[in-house]
Amino acid sequence: MAKIITFxxxxxxxxxxxxxxxxxxxxxxxxxxxxxxxxDPQGNLSFSxxxxxxxxxxxxxxxxxxxxxxxxxxxxxxxxxxPANILLSGVELELTSMGREYILKKxxxxxxxxxxxxxxxxxxxxxILTINAYAASNQLVIPMVPEILSLQGISQLKETIFxxxxxxxxxxxxxxxxxxxxxxxxxxxKEVEELATKIADMIDTDVFEQKISGSVIIAEAPAHAKTxxxxxxxxxxxxxxMDLTYEILGLEKPxxxxxxxxxxxxxxxxxxxx
Length: 274
Known about the structure:
Layout: E1 3-7, H1 16-29, E2 34-38, H2 44-48, H3 59-63, H4 69-72, E3 74-75, E4 80-82, H5 91-94, H6 103-108, E5 117-121, H7 128-136, E6 139-144, H8 148-167, E7 173-179, H9 187-202, H10 216-220, H11 228-231, H12 236-249
Parallel strand pairs: 1-5, 1-6, 2-4, 2-5, 6-7
Antiparallel strand pairs: 3-4
Helix pairs in contact: 1-12, 8-9
């Protein structure tokens, strides 16, 4: 039975898709069977992992009972993907039946035994799509960036999460908050990190020890339809995502050998002993 992890924050631009794709790549690298499910009408996760959201069945067809979820799974190079497209934005108005909060959970239960992990990328809004993801999930991971507006998004998210735990999914766990575009040199970063820790206490969770630094490599990987561990496996960013994945799973981080640097060239005026 797969563990279902949703990446969520109603604030846009905080790295939900990037974190979801990064963790998916790390889990595959660890030998796990992974399904990445795109629940954002923008379809950014689908694009990032090389899935086709235009000429094939998508998660929208599942919500509309036009296709089984097995029909939507695409076997991409990085992992299996259930894509999304802009049609998904109409689901809020189109789904009016009783039990609409459990549609995704019902369909995922038919495919959960085929995977170790199912990762869900959610839209930057508190909609029926978000509630479906929460109702189907075991854990939530909340990405954010060190900005005040990002913190505000988490505080507003709190009420929705608690409501879902009360009425739809009592077992839902907030696994933690991950800080993206992290730069410890900035004063604002430290201030926001302190506030994030206080908010984490309010929602009974923690800020992950592993932070994700800003890097151009992270932005480049989706253009090649690769996860960060595929695109630049020896990069600092790949190591950060791998360590974050271990932390999300509650496992001890791998110990890496520290590369010892040489002392550099000798001064020009100093003779070299032969």
